[in-house]
Every structure is written in C-alpha cells, then in structure tokens.
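FAQ: What does the model actually see?

It sees only this:
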Amino acid sequence: MNKKINYKTLAICILIPLAVGGLSALLTMGSMEDFASLEQPPLSPPGWLFPVVWTILYTLMGIASYIALETPSSQDATKKAFKAYFLQLGFNFFWSIIFFSLGAFEIAFAWLCVLLALIVITTVRFWRINKWAGILMLPYIAWVTFAGYLNLAIAYLN
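And it is asked to produce this:
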C-alpha cells in the first residue's frame, strides 16, 4: 500500500475485533476455573497463552479488514467480504459462550466448524481484494483449526 494510512480508520478496524473478543472473554471469565479442571488433550497450551494469541489474532484481523476496506475494489466484492467478516466475528463471539459458559463441547465443535468455514470464506474474499489482507488472516485459520482439535479432544475426554 503506497497511500497514506488513515490511522483513525485503522484504529477502529483493530478495535472492533478486540472489542468482540474482549466482551466474549468478559462474559465467560467465570467459567475458566471449570475449564482448568477438565481433562486436557496432548498439545494443550498453558492457559496464559490463549489471551496473548487471541489479542494478536484480533489485531491481525483488524489490520486485514482495514487493508480490505482501504483497497479500491468493486462495491460488491467489498460488501461480500465484510458480510462474511462480520458473520465470522459473530460466530467467534458466541463460540466462547457455548464452549466455556454452557460447557456444550459437541455443539461448540460444530459451531467452530462453521466458524472455520466462515473464516476461510472471509480470507478468500479479502485475498481477492488485497493479497495482504488475506495473508493476515492465515494465522487465524491455523489457530482455529488447532482450537478445533482441542475442542473435539476435550469433548471426547470429558
């Protein structure tokens, strides 16, 4: 991108996913003790790593959305990309509630599969607008895929 950065728009784009994740974390905070007592699968990261990774992912997601928003593209392509983007943010928000607050691990896994599909759709649509917007979404795909393994294993073990 050779054009000047609109820092206000960039900040808003980053704050949106951070706010979604922060609100979801706030609503599920009381469930973390129950989660810690569950049988964990191999490769389970330490609990402190989750908020660190999610903060990075939400920031990358926000930057990706900024790039997609600021890159000249057809109105239809931008509209479709952001419909998928906001839909996946909604699914992301509710997954934590289903998994942590409700303890509905099997439903959460199915929900996560839909979330992953929506992330892939968003990534492809962002990529078509600007490849860097798509590239910045790839760590999110990787982490949610890993989260799927953890979710399914926890459902099986507990």
